[in-house]
């Protein structure tokens, strides 16, 4: 057994720390190791420092992982824990998502003040969300609502709701569950009408490719079905977008040797959408995810992507 603790890199938010603690707990249980065998290392990323502009404008998802990935590559970290939803489809050379924990619920949750659900909001109400996918899906349901930018951690968002800055907001059920905050939820959005982002609800572990010691450590905590579902969803995303400027939903469910996937792209105003559903053998999840992405791209045509970018 190693003598120095295994260093687990993570962002410093409460949600990120909860995720890192969950990975540590699973590693401790899988290897009968004490807590001291692991060190959780919180890292402030560029994305955490820049709070006032939309993600897509400041350089996209990579800003939330850059400093952590530098730590993996330099050897100052052994593994990194992330929300899969936040991970770019292209990772730095030498790194990969090497383990996925069993997935949490993938649905979005509505937290309403003026009303308990999107449907019941008074005309013209304000919903806070900086997610293009959530904005588009909200406007598809209720074109009369206004969606306003809303960033920050869960606690600061709750304060803005209490202050009446917005009438409601949407957060991932998975994150609220991990924070023990599900009591704030006033409605759960059905996946059929409000499909989740690719990766939503899945915690992943990133590590150096070809590090047998780390691979052996992670192998027992890896959840096969979640890994295959994520391979499909990430391939779908990669085939459609790298910019974070296209609202994209995608959700794969793997059951034994079979899987099912539903994907959607939608204009930010919610008016035009193109969707796809596919079934297939679980082993083909990644290939079929890429195929689904190409098929949706074809259906939409280039004008779809040019209509607002
Ligand atoms: N971009 C922030 C982010 N990344 C992952 C989650 C939720 C947890 C998850 O999907 O696993 C959240 C917050 C949210 O969307 O409410």
TrEMBL record:
Gene3D superfamilies documented for this protein: Periplasmic binding protein-like II (3.40.190.10), Porphobilinogen deaminase, C-terminal domain (3.30.160.40)
Catalytic activity: 4 porphobilinogen + H2O = hydroxymethylbilane + 4 NH4(+)
InterPro entries for this protein: HemC, Porphobilin_deaminase_cofac_BS, Porphobilin_deaminase_N, Porphobilinogen_deaminase_C, Porphobilinogen_deaminase_C_sf
Cofactor: binding details: Binds 1 dipyrromethane group covalently.
NCBIfam families the UniProt entry points to: hemC
Note: The porphobilinogen subunits are added to the dipyrromethane group.
Pathways involved: Porphyrin-containing compound metabolism; protoporphyrin-IX biosynthesis; coproporphyrinogen-III from 5-aminolevulinate: step 2/4
Any single GO BP term: protoporphyrinogen IX biosynthetic process
GO molecular function: hydroxymethylbilane synthase activity
Family: Belongs to the HMBS family.
Subunit field text: Monomer.
UniProt EC number: 2.5.1.61
Keywords, alphabetical: Porphyrin biosynthesis, Transferase
Names of required cofactors: dipyrromethane
Native species: Pseudaminobacter soli
Domain Porphobilinogen deaminase C-terminal intervals: 230-295
Positions carrying S-(dipyrrolylmethanemethyl)cysteine: 244
Keyword Manganese among record annotations: no
GO CC annotations on file: cytoplasm
Residues of the Porphobilinogen deaminase N-terminal domain: 6-214
Protein task: Tetrapolymerization of the monopyrrole PBG into the hydroxymethylbilane pre-uroporphyrinogen in several discrete steps.
Name under which the protein is recorded: Porphobilinogen deaminase
PANTHER family: PORPHOBILINOGEN DEAMINASE
Pfam families listed in its UniProt record: Porphobil_deam, Porphobil_deamC
